[in-house]
Design a protein that fits this description.
Elements lengths: L1 E8 L8 E3 L1 E4 L11 E5 L28 E5 L4 E6 L2 E6 L5 H8 L10 E6 L13 E5 H11 L12 E4 L13 E4 L2 E10 L17 H6 L5 E10 L1 E4 L3 E4 L1
């Protein structure tokens, strides 16, 4: 039915992504080191004690320049290296050097938006956009349908998915909602579609909005792309692993 084409994690919510070749998923958890940290803005009361909605954080929907950040995380030293086409490389430890990230991203933050204030660590699980631990799953055939609608290529990083699958029909992922799928050695229950926001309009190479992705999606009667899954059985996933419905 399909296979794993790409695996991505986002160590700091909305502040860079990193491509992987394999990952181990655990029951009831997000993808390891995905959205482990988030950047609360000055109007937010988020302190890391509990999950809170994405409106509490600095993100690409409000600050498109953030979309051009790339990340590389060292799990041993808990050190993160970030790059951006308009900034010098930043290497820091999110747990105790968050002020470095706040200063580094200041040029990317619009003046009419709440400024980034502090880096928080998510409580026990990644600070996903869902109020439950989720893994996001995209379908490359659906992406191609949106590209055709817009008449331009769209970098997968616009969509900030964890897993990208290939070998499927466009929009086939919506048929899995309420069902379980097996990918590699893991099982996931598909809970709901992913509703998209303005972050997807920004080019991950430049951080500039250059595609009406939401308008394209609305031509299908919605603004959804991809689905959220909840891990129901732990297991390893690697590039090339097959997908099947359970």
């Amino acid at each position: 039915m399909g296979r794993v084409a790409q695996i991505w994690r986002h160590p700091i919510k909305a502040h860079g992504c990193e491509e992987l070749t394999h990952v181990s998923l655990s029951e009831g958890q997000t993808l390891p080191w995905d959205r482990t940290w988030a950047v609360a803005h000055e109007a937010s009361k988020a302190d890391g004690s509990d999950w809170v909605p994405c409106a509490n954080f600095s993100r690409g929907a409000k600050a498109p320049g953030l979309m051009a950040i790339r990340a590389q995380f060292d799990e041993t030293t808990k050190t993160l290296t970030l790059t951006h086409p308009d900034l010098a490389e930043l290497r820091f430890r999110p747990d105790d050097e968050g002020d470095k990230l706040i200063a580094w991203t200041r040029p990317l933050m619009p003046e009419d938006r709440a400024a980034s204030a502090r880096v928080i660590r998510a409580p026990e699980r990644g600070m996903t956009d869902t109020d439950y631990p989720s893994v996001s799953i995209g379908n490359l055939a659906t992406l191609r349908a949106v590209e055709e609608k817009l008449g331009q290529p769209l970098d997968v990083r616009r969509w900030r998915m964890n897993l990208w699958l290939d070998g499927l029909a466009p929009w086939q992922e919506f048929d899995w909602v309420g069902k379980e799928i097996r990918i590699g050695g893991a099982r996931l229950r598909i809970s709901e579609p992913v509703t998209r926001c303005l972050a997807t309009t920004a080019n991950p190479e430049t951080g500039i909005r250059d595609a009406d992705t939401l308008g394209a999606l609305k031509s299908w009667g919605h603004t959804d792309m991809g689905v959220y899954g909840e891990v129901t059985a732990s297991g390893d996933i690697a590039i090339g692993d097959n997908l099947e419905t359970v």
